[in-house]
Each structure stands twice: as structure tokens, then as C-alpha cells.
Specification:
With about 450 residues, the chain is of the alpha+beta class. It is about 30% helix and about 25% strand. It has 16 helices and 21 strands. Strand 11 and strand 12 (about 155-160) form a beta hairpin. Helix 6 crosses helix 8 and helix 8 (about 215-220) runs antiparallel to helix 9 (about 225-235).
Amino acid sequence: MEIIAYLSPLPAQWMAPGSFLDRNPNMSYLLAAGEHALLVDACSNIAAVLNDLQQRRLQLDALLITHHHQDHTFALKDWLREFPDLSIGVHFLSVSALAAAGVKIKQLFPLIDGLKLKLEGETLRMIAAPGHTRDSLCFWDEKGQNLFTGDVIFGGGIGCTDYNGGGNRNVFYQTIVQLLKMLPETAHLYPGHRSEHHQTPPPYELSAEIISNPYLANALAGKRGNFDRALKYFSLEFETAEAVLLDESSLDDICELEQEIWIPPMQASREVIQERLHHGHKLLTIKDEKGLPGMVGWCYSPFSRADGPGDFPKNFRQFSDCKSCCPDNARSAFIYNVGVKPNRRRQGTGSLLLQEVFEKIRKDGISEVFIDSRMASYNGSTQYDQEKVPRNEVFRKAVDQYFSTGRLPETAVLASDPAVSFYMRNGLIPWIIRPDFIPDDPSGNMRVICYANLDQEGPL
């Protein structure tokens, strides 16, 4: 596969001297094989691309968008004027952003994780890579070992976390970890921006980036805390969420959230909530223009994973209603209430709530975190408006086998449950499954206990 790189100049009003875009100009790429070609991101240097298509007698089959940000899509209208029937490949989450920008696409096709596009015998695989935005994608040319990274990985850095676009630091860390597990060190990186660090055009070699790129080096070493702190500093201008700790003065709001979030059998009473607050528990929410979208509750514990599963709480009351330790004496945090209103789900709200809580916990000097994950797909839950989860027979069988073999189900099976999958995407690892943990028919009265170390994980 031949790769032709183009600088993609932006409108002058976007190019403030010394700004990121000024220092790191946009790039687009024409991928050619045989008589066919694909364009990665909407290059503004249309004349140069058209000239290469003509000179090489190439047919442009499709234009692929790495994510919805305007510096990668603003020239899309021009391409559609030039090629009205051109197929445009985008993440489904990009569609609404493009429509809001006035882009109307006739030949749109979804780019989903794992999709393979053929180009004259060559194959380009789509990789979902959220973190910078929810709709971020990378494109992998396995034969040539070329990765088109958009704003996921730069030469010498990575993209910021754009919270308005569904970005999240926890999710971004997991994306980088998974990419590093997948990619050979011989991979060539073609980012959406030319690197100010290297002052050379792409490609940038992964073998060098894992040494000199601090984000990749920290992910390889398992230094999640270092990664998070550096990315927070880089993304400060986008961190607009207002995190609020709730107390007894907010009991009405807390009770209202409980009723909206949880099915009736799982709702904590006003008295239980008061008791938890009296025991030093913390409740956090975020405020935005639409009100309070959800909340997270947690307490501190002297328990550590090093104590082993045998010493972990046997039931939910021990887990959620114990008196919270002073952070100075605590070794872990128990998170027992992560809930988002149904109309705010699948928008990155839960991940943002978790990130804010992780930050509070880390500031209190705690790195070990445990979360009890509902597993409503064990029996299914469709009776109430708050929850529509079908029964998953494969998941159910694997959980039942755990109690006879002691081996956790395979990752893919665990991830087939929506709640467990959510925690795994945010960097938590399923650790044990507790039977008879809480009366909860959809979950078979069980919980998957998930774990994370917010500072140091095992090196890759």
C-alpha cells in the first residue's frame, strides 16, 4: 500500500500564533493500491490530492474520518462538491456532529470496531480508540504495519481529552494500553498532525515512541497515575465539569436520583442514605446545564487486595454500609453506587463520574479501588423503565462454571454484560464473583467485584 501524506492547512482564523494547531499542522493521507485509493481525513489541499489521483490514474473509493473535530472534517463539504457520490466512512457517533456542522452525506457507511476494508487485495482494519473523543478511530494496515492514528497518538505525545466530545482520561489510558498490546514495535505511526516534537513529517516509529513519548512509556510501565496527571494538565482547557460532593442538605436530590437510576428493589431508602453519610461515606455528582445526571457513592476501608479474597466483605451491607476509615488509615476505597439516569447513559457520563471520583480518591492518598458490578444479564432485567437488559445465556453459563472451577470467565464473556463491560472500559479488572451478595434477582443475587490500582499497574 502506497501512502502519500499531505499537510492540510486550516482556515486562517483558526491559526492563532503559537497555538497547538499552529505548532502541529494537520495531516491527511491518501492510501493507494492498484487502481484504487482511500483518503484518511478531509484534506484541505484538494488540488494536490486530485493531481496525485490523476497522475496515478487512481479511483477514490472512500473518505475515512478519524473523528468529528472540525480540523479533520472542515474540508468535507468541498470533497462532496467535487465527488457528490463519494462514500464517507465515519463512526456512528460522528454523524450528529457532522450534521450540526451542516454536512449532508448521501453515501455514509459506519466504521465499527473490527471492520475490514479491502483495497486491491490490501486490508485496512478499523480500531475503536476512544479517549480523545468517544468517536475516535485508528486504521491499521497490518501488511505494511502502518497505523493511522488521528488524534489518538502523536509523534511525542497523544491527543487531549475533549470532554465535550466524550473524551475521558481513564478510557484513554485503556485505549493506549490496548493499542500497545496489539501493535508490533515495528509499526509506523501516521498521526492527524505533524509533530512539533520531531520537526519531521510522518511516519513516526513506534519503537522510538515507546521510549521518548511519555504517555506511551508510562502506559508500558503501568504508571497510570503519571499518565493521568500529565494528560489532565494537557487537557485543562476542556475539563469543564463541575464535580460536587453531596451531603445531608442534598437528601432530596439524592433520593430523587436513586429513584430515577435504579430499579425499585435496588433503591436505597432515605434512612440508609443518611446512615451512610453519618458513617463518613461520600457521594459525588456533576452539575451541568441539564441538572444532575447521576452519582457515585464510596467509603474508605482498611482492606487491601493483598489480604486476599477470603477477607473481602461477604455481602453488600458489609461492603456499602461500614463506617468509612479516615483516609490516613485506609488502604482502599469501596465504590458501591455508580448510577446514571437512563436518558444520560451512553454519553460518557458514567466514565466522567468515575474519573472525578478516582481523582478525589487519589488525592486522599488511596490507590486501590473496588467496585461491585451488577450483572443484570445473568437473569435479564426488562420489568422496569430504568433497566432493559436481556438475559445472556453464555454469560450465565460462564458465571455458573466459576463456582465449580474457580476460574473467572473469559474477558470477552465478562464484557458481554453491559455493566461489567463499562467498568472494564474504565480500567477496572474483574477480580472475584461473590454469591449471595445482595438480594437482586436480575443478577442472581451475585456481584462481580472489580479492582483497579489508580497509580501503578503491572507493566505491559
